[in-house]
């Protein structure tokens, strides 16, 4: 404070620091997003190789899905970074694909906007394995204007009988205009018709 008074007395301008907005832009450049998919022969170290490239390029993995599909291993990632980071990442991923036999694709994207007119519900389905279950569920929600936000399916053998089983987990985005009680009744009618054990309930945060 004393130094500021002396400078002011000498007719010199006293600065309180650079404008906050300007400083913020310099220190925290706008982040951009890129969606990445990769699939290749399952092997030890595949996830390490992919994530190392992201880290080395300065990217940040926001979301990912990774699983073995038969003898293949599939990866989905959403990565954030500035323009330079993502441009470098695209080049390094292309090199990895050429050297390792991975099929790698990437696409720039934008943050998904929040939807105040949608309510998230979960769908849990278990049944004897049979063709067309996922198709029937997708058709049910699509025909009612309900978006599917996430799907996970799994085939497995029942613990005691060894019977082939199929399970589905979905997150659906139900418009607020939809009458939930009527939707649940129609959904359970479909499940009864297909011999599915199912639950439709609000997504727990």
Describe the structure.
This protein is α+β, with helices and mostly antiparallel strands and about 200 residues long. It is about 35% helix and about 40% strand. It has 6 helices and 8 strands; from the N terminus they run H-H-E-H-E-E-H-E-E-H-E-E-H-E. A 4-stranded antiparallel β-sheet has the order 2-3-1-4, with helices on one face. It has a 4-stranded antiparallel β-sheet with strand order 6-7-5-8, covered by helices on one side. The longest helix has 18 residues. The two termini are about 50 Å apart. About 10% of the residues have low confidence.
List the helices and strands and how they pair.
Layout: H1 2-9, H2 20-27, E1 32-41, H3 46-56, E2 60-69, E3 72-81, H4 83-100, E4 103-109, E5 118-128, H5 133-142, E6 147-157, E7 164-175, H6 180-194, E8 197-202
Antiparallel strand pairs: 1-3, 1-4, 2-3, 5-7, 5-8, 6-7
Give a quick precis of the structure.
This protein is of the alpha+beta class and 205 residues long.
């Amino acid at each position: 404070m004393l130094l500021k008074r002396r400078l002011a007395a000498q007719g010199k301008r006293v600065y309180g620091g650079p404008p906050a907005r300007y400083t913020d832009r310099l220190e925290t450049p706008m982040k951009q997003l890129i969606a990445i998919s990769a699939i290749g022969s399952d092997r030890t170290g595949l996830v390490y190789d992919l994530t190392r490239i992201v880290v080395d390029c300065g990217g940040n993995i926001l979301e990912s899905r990774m699983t073995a599909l038969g003898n293949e291993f599939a990866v989905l990632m959403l990565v954030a970074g500035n323009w330079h980071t993502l441009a470098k990442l695209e080049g390094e991923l292309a090199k990895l694909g050429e050297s390792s036999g991975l099929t790698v694709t990437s696409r720039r994207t934008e943050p998904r906007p929040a939807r105040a007119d949608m309510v998230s519900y979960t769908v849990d389905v278990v049944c004897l394995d049979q063709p067309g279950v996922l198709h029937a569920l997708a058709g049910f929600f699509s025909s009612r204007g309900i978006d599917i936000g996430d799907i996970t399916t799994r085939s497995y053998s029942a613990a005691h009988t060894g019977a082939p089983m199929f399970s589905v987990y979905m997150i659906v985005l139900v418009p607020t205009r939809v009458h939930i009680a009527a939707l649940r009744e129609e959904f359970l009618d479909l499940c009864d018709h297909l011999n599915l054990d199912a639950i439709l309930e609000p997504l727990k945060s």
